[in-house]
Amino acid sequence: MFIGHFAVGLASKRVAPRASLGVLLAAPNLLDLLWPIFLLLGWEQVRIDPGNTAFTPLDFVSYPISHSLLTAFGWGALFALIYWAVTRYSRGAIVIGLSVVSHWVLDFIVHRPDLPLYPGGPRVGLGLWNSVPATIAVEVAMYVAGAWLYLSMTRARDRVGTYALWSFLAFGLVAYVANILGPPPPNVHAIAFVTLALWLVPLWGWWIDRHRDVTPVAQIP
Q1: Contact 21, 200 (CB under 8 A)
Q2: Could you tell me the pLDDT band of residue 221, with boundaries at 50, 70 and 90?
Q3: Which of 16, 77, 99, 116 lies in disulfide reach of 27, CB 3.0 to 4.6 Å?
């Protein structure tokens, strides 16, 4: 799952309008933000294996710290607690915590059985990645819905608010297509360093939100 996680962040603005889009995008992508760091540290492992599934050439050998269900709850609780301590925005903290866990749920749908329930525990996954058309249909539909929800409740304060948002949405689609059509990565370090670029996504979201306002009709106490 890739743009599906973006979709969760965009849609979350609907239920936590006071939260920055930057934080709302960071939450559902948090596990993937941590994963390349753990790869580079040697704590987790991935293998390049074309044909592992129809959609991705990656074999996720071991990622119990970033991508087990138990640790997803732990990361979600930690992120939510930090956010609440800084902002005292309870609704936002709850949404952020749940969004972190949503990453594992969405990955459970697309991955083959390689997601651990807890470190060292059984691995699960429904395997939607075995069908490229089905994967694309689900993710694109989620992305369009998430973008529509964000657009329907915010309006640009200036030109930056318009261009920053639409460039982000276009970037997500272009990166998604490139991921589908591109060749397998040359090595694991390349995977880690490219994935580290995801840290730019929360910054981009923060920039977008700084130039957009929540519409009065969309205000939620």
Answers
A1: no
A2: very low
A3: 99
Strand 123-124 with 115-116, pairing: antiparallel
For the stretch 116-171, pLDDT in tens is: 999 999 999 999 999 999 999 999 999 999 999 999 999 999 999 999 999 999 99
Comparing CA positions, the residue from 201, 196, 193 lying closest to residue 167 is 201
Domain extent, residue 174, equals 3-218
Going from the C-alpha of 209 to that of each of 16, 95, 144, the distances in angstroms are 13, 17, 18
Whose tokens are 């272009």? That residue is 174
The C-alpha atoms of residue 122 and residue 138 are separated, in whole angstroms, by: 26
Cα 127 to Cα 151: distance, rounded to the nearest angstrom: 32
Measured N-to-C along each axis, helices 21-41 and 3-12 cross at an angle, to the nearest 10 degrees, of: 150
**pLDDT tens digits for range 45-103:** 999 999 889 999 999 999 999 999 999 999 999 999 999 999 999 999 999 999 999 99
pLDDT value of residue 217: 57
Identify the bridge partners of residue 213 per DSSP, sorted by sequence position. Answer: 155
- Among the listed residues 157, 171, 175, the one whose alpha carbon sits nearest the alpha carbon of residue 203: 171
CA angle (78, 62, 3) in 5-degree steps? 65
| Global confidence as pTM | 0.93
Place of tokens 């996720």: 60
212 beta partners: 156
Structural domains of the chain, count: 1
Burial of 211 (0-12, 13-18, 19+ CB in 10 A): middle
